[in-house]
Design brief:
By secondary structure, this protein is mostly helical. It has 8 helices and 5 strands. The protein has one domain (about 1-145). The chain has a 3-stranded antiparallel beta sheet. Strand 2 (about 85-90) and strand 3 form a beta hairpin. Helix 1 (about 1-15) packs parallel to helix 3 (about 35-50) and helix 3 packs across helix 8. It comes from Trichoderma parareesei.
């Protein structure tokens, strides 16, 4: 129950204006399932990233980051994630200088991750890991099916 309350508050804190906050509190503040909160948090990340210049590139990067975190057996450090994203499998080359992300994990994944001591990044909870796997499967399937 504490995790649910924490995530619900995180979701509300992400609202950009007082008006939006009041709107969210009236219409959908209390989703019945924890999975619904995770869905809303990921939707918020997607909406925020897509609103940026080059938003699709930011959203694509967030999906890659989340995918690696979901699949990792242990929390990854930010420099490890940067290394993964800097690798070009076609050229079999790592290009840190040009492919290193300029923002941190919170910019791309928001409340879905915790930054731990020592720079380790982990998914906020095991239930979030399961939900992220399901949502990523749906996102990638929808993108593959679209023309």
């Amino acid at each position: 129950m504490f995790l649910y309350a924490h995530l619900a508050i995180e979701y509300l804190l992400q609202q950009p204006t007082k008006e939006k906050l009041k709107e969210k509190m009236k219409e959908e503040m209390a989703p019945k399932e924890l999975s619904q909160i995770y869905e809303k948090l990921l939707d918020n990340v997607q909406t925020e990233l897509l609103s940026l210049t080059e938003g699709q590139a930011h959203w694509d990067m967030a999906k890659l980051l989340l995918g690696w975190l979901v699949c990792a057996k242990r929390p990854l450090k930010w420099h490890e994630m940067q290394s993964i994203l800097s690798y070009d499998p076609d050229q079999q080359k790592v290009d840190f200088d040009n492919k290193m992300l300029r923002q941190d994990a919170n910019k791309y994944l928001g409340s879905l991750v915790h930054i731990l001591e020592g720079g380790h990044i982990r998914i906020v909870h095991s239930t979030a890991r399961r939900q992220a796997k399901n949502q990523l499967r749906m996102v990638f399937k929808l993108e593959a099916d679209s023309p």
